[in-house]
UniProtKB/TrEMBL annotation:
The lineage of its organism: Eukaryota, Fungi, Fungi incertae sedis, Chytridiomycota, Chytridiomycota incertae sedis. It comes from the Eukaryota. The GINS complex plays an essential role in the initiation of DNA replication. Keywords: DNA replication, Nucleus. Belongs to the GINS4/SLD5 family. It comes from Batrachochytrium dendrobatidis (strain JEL423). Its main location: nucleus. GO terms for biological process: DNA-templated DNA replication; double-strand break repair via break-induced replication. Residues 167-219 form the DNA replication complex GINS protein SLD5 C-terminal domain. This is DNA replication complex GINS protein SLD5. One of its GO terms (cellular component) is GINS complex. It is found in: Nucleus. Residues 77-143 form the GINS subunit domain.
Length: 219
């Protein structure tokens, strides 16, 4: 605990001479991770896994945790700074966990669909793919043991078109343009001019490629 104004002044003054652990690029990576999380929440399907962002943020968390421990451990004067850095690290970890938890929920909901297509499988990380395959095995074992075994063979398949949980790619989504895109064909007869910082309500299937190349953000 900070016991007096003098102690608080000492901490703040001492902090002026300390090089910040989090460098500016880390803030950019964090903001990009938030964008990926929001896009994933708004997208009806599973977007490609953000390998680089997740790896970079995990590295930042690990190195900053170690840096805070080495720099401030055993120095009560810096407990306040240690607490502040700890809050920042928890904020980063919250976004990472939320992003991964959201994706796992989608994978559980659309497991068979995602595993049915090699291109869709590529959207998952190695860990997510392992999770999906194990989850599908468990589901198949459960269903066959509970009721599918009593049905004729033509009704036992879980990967038929009738059984697949597919995302609605034509659902309407709000989006914001982050870079000038130009004309976008939205149907056979109509195009719209996609300008930076403008917001639109469009079919997801039309903007999905733009989301993947970071020229459009979902809202």
């Amino acid at each position: 605990m900070i016991g007096s104004d003098a102690e608080l002044d000492e901490i703040l003054n001492a902090g002026e001479n300390i090089q910040p652990i989090q460098k500016p690029p880390a803030a950019d990576i964090y903001q990009s991770m938030i964008r990926a999380w929001v896009n994933e929440k708004a997208a009806p399907d599973l977007l490609p896994f953000q390998h680089d962002l997740v790896s970079q943020l995990r590295f930042i968390v690990e190195t900053q945790q170690e840096g805070v421990h080495l720099r401030y451990s055993g120095q009560p004067t810096f407990n306040f700074l240690k607490f502040i850095y700890g809050l920042e690290l928890e904020r980063i970890k919250f976004v990472l966990r939320s992003y991964i938890r959201l994706r796992l929920g989608k994978i559980q909901h659309m497991t068979i669909y995602l595993l049915s297509d090699p291109e869709l499988r590529m959207c998952m990380s190695d860990e997510e793919l392992f999770f999906a395959e194990r989850f599908q095995t468990l589901i198949q074992t459960y269903h066959k043991g509970s009721y599918l075994g009593n049905l004729s063979k033509q009704w036992q398949a879980l990967d038929s078109d009738e059984m697949l949980m597919k995302p609605d790619l034509d659902t309407a989504v709000f989006c914001r343009v982050t870079q000038d895109v130009g004309d976008l064909q939205i149907n056979e007869m109509e195009t719209i001019l996609m300008k930076k910082d403008q917001m639109y309500l469009l079919r997801y299937s039309k903007v999905r490629p733009l989301v993947e190349n970071n020229t459009v953000d979902l809202l």
